[in-house]
Amino acid sequence: MLAPKGLGGYLRSHYLDKTFQGIYKLDWFDLSLLIPYFVVMVILAFYGIHRYQLVWLYYRNKKNASKWNEPVARFGEGQLPFVTIQLPIYNEQFVIDRLIEACCRIDYPRDRFEIQVLDDSTDETVEVARGIVEKYAAGFGDLAPQPIVYLHRTNRYGYKAGALDEGLKVAKGDLIAIFDADFVPPPEWVMQVVHHFAEPGIGMVQTRWTHLNRDYSFLTQVEAILLDGHFVLEHGGRSRAGVFFNFNGTAGMWRRETIGEAGGWQHDTLTEDTDLSYRAQMVGWKFKYLQDVECPAELPIEMTAFKTQQARWAKGLIQTGKKILPRVLKSDAPFHTKLEAWYHLTANLSYPLMIVLSTLLMPAMIIRSYQGWVQMLLIDFPLFMASTMSVSSFYLVSQKELFPKTWWKTFLYLPFLMALGVGLTITNTKAVLEALFGVKSAFARTPKYRVSAKGEKSQAKVYRKRLGIVPWIELAIGCYFTATVWYAISSENYFTVPFLLLFVLGYWYTGLLSLLQGRFERNSGTSVHEKPYPVGI
Predict the structure, then answer these.
(1) Which regions span the lipid bilayer (predicted)?
(2) What is the pLDDT of residues 220-247, one digit of tens each?
(3) In whole angstroms, how far apart are CA 151 and each of 84, 129, 154, 261, 419?
(4) For residues 64 and 67, what is the distance between their CA atoms, to the nearest angstrom?
(5) Which of 108, 225, 281, 299 is deepest in the core (most CB within 10 A)?
(6) Sheet of 252-255: strands edge to edge?
(7) Is 154 helix (H, G, I), strand (E, B) or coil?
(8) Minimal CA–CA distance to 306: which of 456, 421, 450?
(9) What are phi and psi of 174, to 5 degrees?
């Protein structure tokens, strides 16, 4: 390491040798590249610093955490409110029986309880769901007849929001619980949540998602870490700090009065849950988050399904931001609430900025190498720490909170977690730009496969999405970053190589998985459905 050609020699020749100091002159061409490069880096750094802030809010307000067994008030004996459970489904023939059985086993007085199956399906799910509902309504297995009804729409007007609104018109409940098709609520879920509505002013209670198939594959393990970060630190930090946070569309319970006062379910965004959440909190209703109440769900097992889900969320949040943020900023809410709402609803703007950064990274690296290591250490390194390393710390902390004995294993997943975030850039940028320019698209449902064990084959091949050109674009950009890595090595700029390799890994990982998943089934003669579910990407 101390030899002339070792690490010591490298450091002396690259960072301590001042032979050519002062020769390089900054010109207008360099500025035209460096100014947008640093503007993007600074904006991304602000969003990165916000992740640190969420961690700080989470721990600073730990005493404000809500717990299921410590409600402010309780309903008296015989005073439990009527609860309606809504199950909005669309082409879910492989998971609907699991969902209905779980809901029928919920522990709650049957004279104050009903289940609505809100079916917008256009395939065999119609017959499957209707038959299952009829069985449980008449009594099935060890269960007595259940208060369950089947409601089918022949059109998908309003998509999920429209289905929930239709069900609400005939619902009997004062409280409305909602579960998507891939969820399996435990029997005690309603009783853990319901008493929190004895506190006046509580409009919604959200519970934490857990993962039925967390260990199915490497992809699902990374997805689980991403969602855990959202549910622990984003929901935890915001709810404990008393600022606005959102219902996640499922595994939560609403006060019916809250939905009405906030203006009801509206379908002009793809995230109708976040839209209603902000409208409800702006008219004075308070939300609670119960981190200690778990509701298991299924993670997407294919890259195309995961990308579809992430693109819908990215587009929907930008749509909601365009619709809601002006009202929030003009409201009487405290400044820190407005600031948090801004960060929350605009966070996905980082994806188009990542495209700009990807384009400028190589020329900026060449220019910066001529300006000396002092500037890079004082400017580039702090921006890199704020924008990139915050991601690592964010997810490490969330895993430490959930798994205090095994959280250290998350270090193994961090490079792939960061690479996956990079790999989603193309898909999510397209979704964000569609939202910014007002391009409408159908509600892109996430296909449910009902798999949990490693190696278990999916039986829901009919719901597989077409691939399109996006994976090829991702592979091409991965090749561009491979050239960037080659330049960094050839110019002996070794410290940038690990960072650049994240871009190569991210774009190639998402691109190749999108192209190869399902390839062997097609080659073996299994047909792919000619009309997959409608998508906007």
Answers:
(1) 34-59, 349-367, 467-489, 495-516
(2) 999 999 999 999 999 999 999 999 999 9
(3) 14, 10, 10, 25, 43
(4) 9
(5) 299
(6) 148-152, 113-119, 83-89, 175-178, 252-255, 202-211, 286-297
(7) coil
(8) 421
(9) -80, -25
Query: Other CB atoms closer than 10 Å to residue 370's CB: what's the count?
Result: 12
* Catalytic residue flag (residue 380): no
Three state DSSP letters for 407-468 = HHHHHHHHHHHHHHHHHCHHHHHHHHHHHHCCCCCCCCCCCCCCCCCCCCCCCCHHHCCCCC
Residue pair 194/75 in contact (Cβ under 8 Å)? The answer is: yes
The Cα 66–Cα 71 span in angstroms is 8
For residue range 249-279, what is the model confidence (pLDDT) as tens digits?
999 999 999 999 999 999 999 999 999 999 9
The contacts of residue 88 (CB under 8 Å, 6+ apart) are: 118, 120, 160, 163, 164, 167, 178, 180, 181
Residues near 508 by Cβ (< 8 Å), separated by ≥ 6? 423, 474, 475, 478
Q: Rounded to an integer, what distance in angstroms lies between the CA atom of residue 420 and that of residue 417?
A: 5
Cα–Cα–Cα angle for 335, 336, 338, nearest 5°? 65
Mean pLDDT of 414-438: 93
Residue linked to tokens 């005073």: 79
Q: Which two tokens stand for residue 400?
A: 């430490």
Supply the pLDDT for residue 441: 79
Which candidate, 401, 408, 389, 423, places its Cα nearest to that of 506? 423
Residue 252 sits at φ, ψ, to 5 deg, of -145, 170
What does the block give as tokens for 445?
């449902």
Radius of gyration, CA atoms only, the chain: 25
At residue 273's C-alpha, the angle toward residues 267 and 274, to 5°, is 105
Of these residues, 30, 119, 273, 275, which one is catalytic? 273
CA distance 184 to 95: 10
Q: Residue type for 1, please?
A: M
End-to-end CA distance of the chain: 51
CB 294 within 8 A of CB 185: no
How far is Cα 67 from Cα 195, in angstroms, rounded to an integer?
11
3-state SS class at 148: strand
Element (H, E) at 351: helix 350-371
Is 159 within 8 Å of 230 (Cβ atoms)?
A: no
| Chain center to CA of 154 | 30
**Cα-Cα-Cα-Cα dihedral sign, residues 27, 29, 33, 35:** positive
427 contacts 310 by C-beta, under 8 angstroms: yes
For residue 420, pLDDT beyond 60: yes
* The pair of three-digit structure tokens given for residue 134, joined into one six-digit string: 């009829």
* 273 tagged catalytic: yes
Q: Which of 30, 119, 120, 275 is catalytic?
A: 120
**pLDDT given at position 384:** 67
Number of H helices, E strands in the chain: 21, 7
Residue 461's pLDDT is: 57
The domain over range 58-349 is classified in CATH as 3.90.550.10 = yes
Q: What is the pLDDT of residues 53-66, one digit of tens each?
A: 999 999 999 999 99
How many beta carbons lie within 10 A of that of residue 78, not counting itself? 7
Residue 7 backbone dihedrals phi, psi, to 5 degrees: -65, -40
